[in-house]
Design a protein that fits this description.
Required for morphogenesis under gluconeogenic growth conditions. One of its GO terms (molecular function) is LPPG:FO 2-phospho-L-lactate transferase activity. Keywords: Cytoplasm. This protein is an alpha/beta fold and 339 residues long. Among the domains are: 174 residues, 3-Layer(aba) Sandwich (Rossmann fold), CATH 3.40.50; 38 residues, no CATH class. It has 14 helices and 10 strands. The strands form 2 sheets. It has a 7-stranded parallel sheet with strand order 3-2-1-7-8-9-10, with helices on both faces. A 3-stranded antiparallel sheet has the order 5-4-6. Strand 1, helix 1 and strand 2 form a beta-alpha-beta unit. Helix 1 packs across helix 14 and helix 8 packs parallel to helix 11. It is globular, with a radius of gyration of 20 Å. The termini are far apart.
Length: 339
């Protein structure tokens, strides 16, 4: 019998931290760098934190493991776990271990090339335990993660989209399958329609429970069509997000001009949410003023979602379109106290 079949070890208790603020229980949904930014900020405000992560990635190390082993793509889950590591020697070391990528020597086509060690660790736990949720719990315990990480579904999902191609010969619509290809397609065309496959995939039960019990639900930032929107396209997850008594916040990106959203304004981003989930309402939309062109139009669009716009300088001081964890934490803290 494997030692992994026993009870989970206790997650080490953090020392020297101030009492959590008024955040209460928080569920953050998304994927990739956007979700990592939210988690890096939220872990400073609460110890009752759950990340619900997209599982549609099919590129890079995650895509290879998904195709070769038939597992959930572990990359976004790994990044979420790394973001929850404590800011201590232990936490920083394990964060770097999880994010470490193997690189083959020049001229050598190695099987480990570009694989992240954290991806391999997570998949190992899944194979030993036969349970993706339990595997992530064990990985979190090893890292001393300040919160839990859950997949949005225990089935690997596929994102399919229609993109509008504009050429000298005219305009045509082309179907693109796969998150990696769809995200890249935006550099040459506009994403027009997206679908999640299988459309009736079940949501992770633990994620549904966390949303039901939460005080706050934070959706975004992240790649709008492939990291944020999928949570509202999975029927059970969308129903849970609409039915929860938790307050809901949508966090906007720091750039409207991504490969998926070229030519779209901040108001257009909100229109996408309304289009795919008209029943989904929010209490607040957190946005950096730098990405809002027409402030009045943006506030009206937020009001159509049932909430109010919360403006805050949350970008990095370098000017790059990435969220600064401390600024984002401050904005969340103020929002939690006001709404």
């Amino acid at each position: 019998m494997s030692f992994l079949t026993g009870p989970l070890p206790l997650i080490p208790e953090a020392k020297g931290r101030e009492e959590p603020g008024k955040a209460g229980s928080v569920v953050a949904l998304g994927g990739g760098h956007g979700l990592s930014a939210s988690l890096s900020a939220l872990r400073l405000l609460t110890t009752d934190l759950t990340a619900v992560v997209t599982v549609a990635d099919d590129g890079g190390s995650s895509g290879r493991l998904r195709r070769e082993l038939g597992v959930l793509p572990p990359g976004d889950l790994r990044m979420a776990l790394a973001a929850l590591c404590d800011d201590t020697d232990w936490g920083r070391t394990w964060r770097d271990v999880m994010q470490h990528r193997f690189r083959s020597r020049p001229g050598v086509d190695g099987s480990l090339d570009d694989h992240a060690l954290g991806n391999l660790l997570i998949v190992t736990l899944w194979e030993l335990l036969g349970d993706p949720v339990a595997g992530l719990q064990w990985a979190g315990a090893l890292l001393g993660a300040r919160g839990q990480v859950l997949p949005m579904s225990t089935l690997p999902l596929t994102i399919e989209g229609d993109v509008i191609r504009r050429t000298a010969a005219g305009t045509r619509i082309e179907t693109v399958t796969g998150q990696a290809r769809l995200a890249a397609a935006g550099t040459r065309s506009n994403v027009h329609e997206v679908r999640l496959l299988p459309a009736d995939a079940p949501a992770c039960p633990a994620a549904l429970e966390a949303i039901d019990l939460a005080d706050w639900v934070i959706l975004g930032p992240g790649s709008w069509y492939t990291s944020v929107l999928p949570h509202l396209m999975l029927p059970q997850l969308r129903d849970a997000l609409c039915a929860t008594s938790a307050k809901r916040c949508l966090t906007m990106n720091l750039s409207n001009e991504t490969t998926e959203t070229a030519g779209m304004s901040a108001v257009d981003h909100l229109a996408v949410i309304r289009r795919y989930a008209p029943e989904f309402k929010v209490d607040a939309v957190l946005v950096d003023p730098s990405v809002v062109g027409d402030r009045e139009a943006f506030e009206e669009a937020v009001a159509e979602l049932g909430g109010r716009a919360v403006f805050g300088k949350v970008g990095a001081a370098s000017g790059r379109p990435i969220h600064d964890p401390l600024r984002l934490a401050t904005a969340f803290h103020d929002m939690f106290g006001e709404i």
